[in-house]
Amino acid sequence: MLSKTKVKYIQSLGQKKFRQSEMLFIAEGIKIVEELISEIPDLIVEVFAIQEWVEPQKKINAKIPITEITQQELERISQLTTPNKVLAIIKMLPEVKLSSIKNKVVLALDGIQDPGNMGTIIRIADWFGIEQIVCSTDSADPYNPKVVQATMGSIARVKIIHTDLKKWLEDMSDTQIFAAVLGGKDVSSINKISEGVIIIGNESKGISPELLKLSNIKIAIPAKGKAESLNAAVATGIILSHLI
Amino acid sequence: MLSKTKVKYIQSLGQKKFRQSEMLFIAEGIKIVEELISEIPDLIVEVFAIQEWVEPQKKINAKIPITEITQQELERISQLTTPNKVLAIIKMLPEVKLSSIKNKVVLALDGIQDPGNMGTIIRIADWFGIEQIVCSTDSADPYNPKVVQATMGSIARVKIIHTDLKKWLEDMSDTQIFAAVLGGKDVSSINKISEGVIIIGNESKGISPELLKLSNIKIAIPAKGKAESLNAAVATGIILSHLI
To answer: Does the pLDDT value for residue A97 go beyond 80?
Structure first.
């Protein structure tokens, strides 16, 4: 049985300021929680789950503190409209300094706002073997429950660094910096890369002019129909599938 | 001032059964509503908007019935957490019979469930000039407000047909039918196509085995990292960017 204080505490982790003061975040659902348990077991603080999930897990993961709760309790602590059996409280991965980008492709996110897009981009990066994402300070919080959900577990594998993007890109001027813009070079005509930075812009404003100036290769995904734009995460996936 | 009956009526269009009995749907937000007004003006039944949006529009679109409402009224009729100035009631596009797929690429959606994915896929199709999407009968309703939102207006240009996908694909056996599966041929190595069907599978179960059997070309997006899968809409975007 969960105490009222505990329920309130878990609910509070839905808010950024509490996540940051506690340095904790929550993940939900069988698939994501099991992936995080296997990837970052030492960062799992506590798992709350209904009986059905608890029984088999207790044997496999004897070290993970699991508390069995009722469906009603799960509904109270869950951030989802349809809670999915299990919720975990997890320590935030320490924000690392950006390691050298030598022989690496890095995504630079300029004000990605939508949590679903942010999470999907982290999942795409993981799919294409990108280990580091650099975000402007106004990008969505990667520990927002909706972001964590959309990463489908990839949050455990991709390092996310928040920084002054402009300053950071200025230091990168001797590497290839790609920016997707209308009228850029068809991305499918560009040779594969093993090193470089790819800037992804805000959902409605695109890449800010000051960052655009710092890019040295303008690329585009040619449109064949009448849609005005592509979703930011979809564009990221398409660009990476051609460049990597 | 909106009557209670009117408010209830508009709210009811958030539910599929009312949308279907009325043959109407709602669209919200400046960008989408303005795009729909310009694309399908004859299907716009009524527009509700706050003063700021109404003033300039009344001159441009004299024929569209616009009702000015307050922000509070907008909040009551809106399906969004952050209503964006305008909401329109629109007649559903008549569900057409599938025209010949001669010289056309058609998407076949096998049980896409998430409204955001469905809407994003419609937007991607529009971007790549795909005019028709065939959906299994258990796919998300394209007139769900979240789908309409995610299409960013492309719902007005892409024809969506619901049908028994298995029967339909059986009739298509003399065309190329692509299916993305693990271990398929790298999509970037396949020649561009001007005709064919591309099957996109359900978010968690993938393409159902009975449909998979009907496909004659298995393709894949090679993974370089450790993520287990890609989001269905992102995969659609990547596949189309290589095949079209």
So the answer is: no
Q: Are A151 and A36 spatial neighbours (Cβ–Cβ below 8 Å)?
A: no
Domain borders along chain B are 4-91, 105-243
Beta bridge partner(s), residue B90: B25, B44
Task: Check CB contact of B159 with chain A, cutoff 8 Å.
Answer: no
Q: Are B147 and B115 in contact (CB under 8 A)?
A: yes
Q: In this complex, how many residue pairs, one in chain A and one in chain B, have their CB atoms less than 8 Å apart?
A: 115
CA-to-CA separations, A187 to A21, A192, A235, B184, B215, in angstroms, rounded: 42, 10, 11, 23, 29
What kind of architecture, by CATH, is found in domain A105-243? 3-Layer(aba) Sandwich (3.40)
The answer to whether B235 contacts chain A (CB < 8 Å) is: yes
pLDDT digits (tens, 9 = 90+) for A98-143: 777 888 999 999 999 999 999 999 999 999 999 999 999 999 999 9
| Location of structure tokens 């039944």 | B45
Residues 48-107 on A with a CB inside 8 Å of B are none
How far CA A66 is from CA of A42, A79, A86, A167, in Å, comes to: 14, 19, 10, 44
Spans in chain B with pLDDT lower than 70:
none
- Tell me if the pTM is above 0.80: yes
Could you say which architecture CATH assigns to the domain A4-91?
Answer: 2-Layer Sandwich (3.30)
